[in-house]
Design brief:
heterodimer; A: 397 residues; alpha+beta; MetI-like fold; two-stranded antiparallel ribbon; 12 helices; 65% helix; 7% strand; disordered N terminus; B: 341 residues; alpha/beta; D-Maltodextrin-Binding Protein, domain 2; 5-stranded mixed β-sheet; 3-stranded parallel β-sheet; 37% helix; 16% strand; transport (chain A)
Amino acid sequence: MAIGVTNAPERSKSSGSIINDPQVRGIFYQAITVIILAVLIYWIVDNTIENLRRANIASGYGFLSSRAGFDVGQSLISFSSDSTYGRALVVGFVNTLLVAITGIITATVIGFIVGIGRLSHNWIIAKLSLAYVEVFRNIPPLLVIFFWYSGVLSILPQARDALALPFDMYVSNRGLAFPRPIPGEGSLYTLLAFLIAVAASFLVARYARQKQMATGQRFPVLWTALGLIIGLPLVTFLATGAPLTFDVPVAGKFNLTGGSVVGPEFMSLFLALSFYTAAFIAEIVRAGIRGVSKGQSEAAHALGIRPRLTTRLVIVPQAMRIIIPPLTSQYLNLTKNSSLAVAVGYADLVAVGGTILNQTGQSIEVVSIWLIVYLSLSLATSLFMNWYNARMALVER
Amino acid sequence: MARRILTALVGAAVMGIGAHAASAATLDDVKAKGFVQCGVNTGLAGFAAPDASGNWSGFDVDYCKAIAAAVFGDATKVKYTPTSAKERFPALQSGEVDVLARNTTWTINRDTALGFNFRAVNYYDGQGFMVRKGLNVKSALELSGAAVCVQTGTTTELNLADYFKTNNLQYNPVVFEKLEEVNAAYDAGRCDVYTTDQSGLYSLRLTLSKPDEHMILPEIISKEPLGPAVRQGDDQWFDIVSWVHYALINAEDFGITQANVEEMKKSPNPDIQRFLGVEADTKIGTDLGLTNEWAVNVIKAVGNYGEVFDRNIGAGSPLKIERGLNALWSKGGIQYAPPVR
């Protein structure tokens, strides 16, 4: 108190007492918060360890390197019951990534189409888009997943009466079976040609931009790039003697054997997440386009820019600035919603982790792995989208 | 950010282990709260399933009732926690349930690393396969290439992998977390084969849309001793749960039934007198922490082991499972109880 009084004359703004000094108060409250938090954390950790010890439950992450003993239905990397728990988690993680990435791409495409459709002058297209958004936005994602799953299971034929499609593809309630390409000797050249074509396309695009800047003349970049990317690998492929064979699915006793199969679990989850998230993305896209003031397009028209170019060069770049931040949240939501996979038996990180949790009883360890993986995945998505957002931001001169 | 992760982690830790520490004296806790919290299956006809008005019945449920009868002399003082295969162990570890009577296999891993205790085996089971009759499969060895429906986190899942690997057969596992989901998928033709404990297959077949079109293959590929589990570190409670089972077996041995238990109290047989707590100065129940009438209460509540079996899963039920290994040792089975002495 005494110090506060002596200091009072120096602190012109404070009313005299240290208790009323906003800076001191701020520090005091923050210190209290930190102490409470620290005590709370200590108490929880200590309690957990004590409880585990008392319940005689083994803990630690050592179990990750022991033999899993179970099989996983869908796996992009090789996995058998002899693999480790750690590898099983990787299988689950890859499956989560697969459904998240394919889902994000499809949801974005559908979302943009529907979002633009809602602004269409065509009454039917606008109303259809509206109906789509309202239906999918207002149903819980889990129900959408069940809808697709039971739809796939009950409408498609039984495995032994699989429906034959062109190119040796078959569809049944066990999924879509298609021939798996097996690259032979010399396929490396085709891949190399493809990479060279992609790199060349970039150079062409840069050259075209410089040329337009300098002379105003435009260069058909799209057609050149397409020709390069398709043509060059194709020529190489034929020149090296078409080194590619196919593993074709054939009807076995129970299922189709051979080839690759996309199971109904993946299909229903992928479709559900795409359609569900697309409804939200459509609204974001619509808001973004609406958010660009009318004066912009009017000014472009006044300058004599054609409508299609106006959309591409004036409206969309400005709309993107509004669209990207909420789009990021939708991508994160889709990734997190993919954990609903457990309901239809798709082997994502949560489903595989759940199996491990139950086989080993290491609940805290598995839950902590889940948290860390989803957190990292979300943060990585955020980082990427923030980078993209910065790139798309209006450059002020 | 590091702090946020840590907080999240710790939060998970709390969720994983439950907010309150599991106290050592379960019997005192149970008496204090006035009921037994019993972990059961979410719905397996014959073992544990709720009826339309929410009343639970079944083989495992009768064990819950029997434990409540032993502790309180009142079989209604029990509350049920339906648990999936995945939820059951954390529920018991955290103290959310006092005993897990949920057709759970006794394994060394569960007995040690998971921190549980098993002793009484109330049902000797083994894993089997169910297929559609139309597939013309006569043996599990013909199943190569099949899609197999299985519930996740079970010993079944592990036995399945081992069996197919040992016999060099290919298969495609279709894994679900909940029993109802496995049923629906098998019924819809998502898989060719359904595998779980054979008792479970009999029960599940009844729930399919056309039970007659399905058959259970003869192979039994594993040992599945099912029994009630408790947490380690509480021998008194462990003894009570074990001896409730032994009381049911001994009752069948002595020919004591739900109907004649009062009469049997007057039996001159000293073994029966001791068992039913009518011997002078007996401590047969008080040593367990119960009343001397405990065995009488158990039998009054659910009958003897044979009655419990017949009523829920045996001849007197739609499941019609034969006693087989679960007959008394004196009748060709392996159900055997230590003497009450």
